[in-house]
Automatic annotation (TrEMBL):
<dbReference type="GO" id="GO:0004650">
    <property type="term" value="F:polygalacturonase activity"/>
</dbReference>
<feature type="domain" description="Rhamnogalacturonase A/B/Epimerase-like pectate lyase">
    <location>
        <begin position="115"/>
        <end position="176"/>
    </location>
</feature>
<dbReference type="InterPro" id="IPR024535">
    <property type="entry name" value="RHGA/B-epi-like_pectate_lyase"/>
</dbReference>
<dbReference type="InterPro" id="IPR012334">
    <property type="entry name" value="Pectin_lyas_fold"/>
</dbReference>
<protein>
    <recommendedName>
        <fullName>Rhamnogalacturonase A/B/Epimerase-like pectate lyase domain-containing protein</fullName>
    </recommendedName>
</protein>
<dbReference type="InterPro" id="IPR011050">
    <property type="entry name" value="Pectin_lyase_fold/virulence"/>
</dbReference>
<dbReference type="Pfam" id="PF12708">
    <property type="entry name" value="Pect-lyase_RHGA_epim"/>
</dbReference>
<dbReference type="InterPro" id="IPR039279">
    <property type="entry name" value="QRT3-like"/>
</dbReference>
Amino acid sequence: MQTGLRKEGTASPELQKFLNALKAEGRLLKPEEPATAFVPGGTVLGAQSHVDTFTYANTVGRDPIYGATGSTNTRPAALAPGGRFPVVPAPNYASNPTTDFINVKDPSQNGGHTVLGDNTIDESAVLNQVLQYAADNNKIAYFPFGKYRVDSTLLVPVGSRIIGEAWSTITGNGAFFKDLSNPKPIVAVGNPGDVGLAQIQDMRFTVSDVLPGAIILQFNMRGTSPGDVGLWSSLITVGGTRGASALTNTCHDPSSEYQAAFLGMYFAPDSSAYVENVWNWVADHITESFAGGSNIAAKGGALVASTRGTWLHALGSEHWWLYQLNLHQASNVLITLLQSETNYDQGDHVQQTPPAPWVADITNWGDPDFSWCSGGDTRCRMGFANYIQGGSDIYTYASASWAFFSGPGYQPCAGAYQCQNYMHWISETPKNLQAFGLCSKDAWATLHLADGTNIVSQDGFTGSWPGGGGDVGRYTPGNI
């Protein structure tokens, strides 16, 4: 195996560091197929039969910061059965006959129920009946393109297999989801304690109104193998699209961004879920050529409290108010290719300073309260990309996290590294944290450590985004 990049011509020292951040992990090799990592200037990993964990990167705790680091680490069985991180493709049902499917809108297939899917009436009760019918009869529930309104929680029962058409949409609506002191899921995948199968793909989950008590998608159940409970190629959205006039007509005042949703995704403590290629987005603009507002303060992006095994591959989580991804005393979590952006209304010119309009609930929901910031430090009071609060066995690879603007109306930042003070924040160090490739754009500190140390981007940790990027190639406390 070879990993690395050869240099052709010349490059600046900063660019060379950007090009030559590399990693090899858990590789067993044939004797005649050596592992070699090379950078301009020579080989940094010679021939050997096994590579446990090797990096050549900007490394926290290394002196000098940039260079080679090797270590050993045993992946936990709950996260990596047999020592391997699972990659589970979305079901394609190619071998299933048409009789294995039901069209949820067809009474001749769905148990005799009438479903409209046109966003005109509450269909929570009938959809709950249809999904239970599909699970009871071992059918794959097909949602034709449409917008299915629910005014109370839609339960995805054990045994469900759901597939949409071009992001068929479940939209939450009404008073049931307005109480922020008692948040409720719009869609709940299983009940607490459930064990079994629930697989969803090609769907969209959203809100039709300002719903400060709405958890858009909540995972409660677990399976017996990774991917038994899974979500693939789907969207969670708040605003920006047609069909939610109560939201887009309201959220147009940058001095009073509205609490449009409580959480995008919640992984409950007893859950175990596999998520791949999912975009968890709060609108920063209108996407479908109509007049409407997108000054939105939806509270939290993805909150992981699970301890049983959570796999997040290629999750995009953008423009949530307090954080994009929050690991709250979570254990056995794998994150790969996280992409996040800070809310565009935040920064030097913010008009409603976080956590406002929310009151941070540290005890129940693990919210950041920004108490470490001075009152007027608006670059400090900005939503984090990763907010990590203790737990154990956290493995994160390649987080691309960007800050673009400094306030409403796409106002530019003061300069490079001057949009946001802290991009990734660790309040309590997890036991066995394995973090590689924590990146940032225009953040003064790419990473804040639990002991108060700031990993300042320009102090040896430049990389990723050209001209303003930070790159913590490796942070593995106690395992450098």
